Amino acid sequence: MKIVIQRVSRASVTIDGQVKSAIGKGYMILLGVAEGDTSEDVDWLVKKVASLRVFDDEQGVMNIPITAINGEILVISQFTLLASYKKGNRPSWIHAAKHEVSIPLYNEFCDKLSREIGRQVGTGEFGADMKVELMNDGPVTICMDTRHKE
């Protein structure tokens, strides 16, 4: 699994002209599920995201996790994170998991993350044409890949 976490002041996702989810201060996360990903990958990412200390303390140092600020999270499915670009200029999606694998793992990630932070995370709609808007705070952007846990 690959994720891109952006610390945001606000974020929202719109589908067919209707806002599906909107959050204030917190994280907007893009999540890509790869072939071979499992619930163990979900568990590892959930713990990392919930424990990540990128919000400022009293001295202005990134030292506070999202749970300490009662922050919100929006998770958007993003298979294009798994793009293969080694040959030519048109990306290939051969590393992205099929729907029957990726949808349950996406839902599991959202459910477990909601429980871990003690509040419901916002979501997009798997496979939909989504318009994502965000105000990056910092900017702070962090990429994580469960294939590179060190």
Automatic annotation (TrEMBL):
One of its GO terms (cellular component) is cytoplasm. GO terms for biological process: D-amino acid catabolic process. It is found in: Cytoplasm. Gene3D superfamilies: D-tyrosyl-tRNA(Tyr) deacylase. The keyword Hydrolase applies. GO terms for molecular function: D-tyrosyl-tRNA(Tyr) deacylase activity; Gly-tRNA(Ala) deacylase activity; Ser(Gly)-tRNA(Ala) hydrolase activity; tRNA binding. Keywords: Cytoplasm, Hydrolase, RNA-binding, tRNA-binding. A motif (Gly-cisPro motif, important for rejection of L-amino acids) lies at residues 138-139. It is an enzyme of class 3 (hydrolase). The keyword Hydrolase applies. Homodimer. Belongs to the DTD family. This is D-aminoacyl-tRNA deacylase. The gene is dtd.
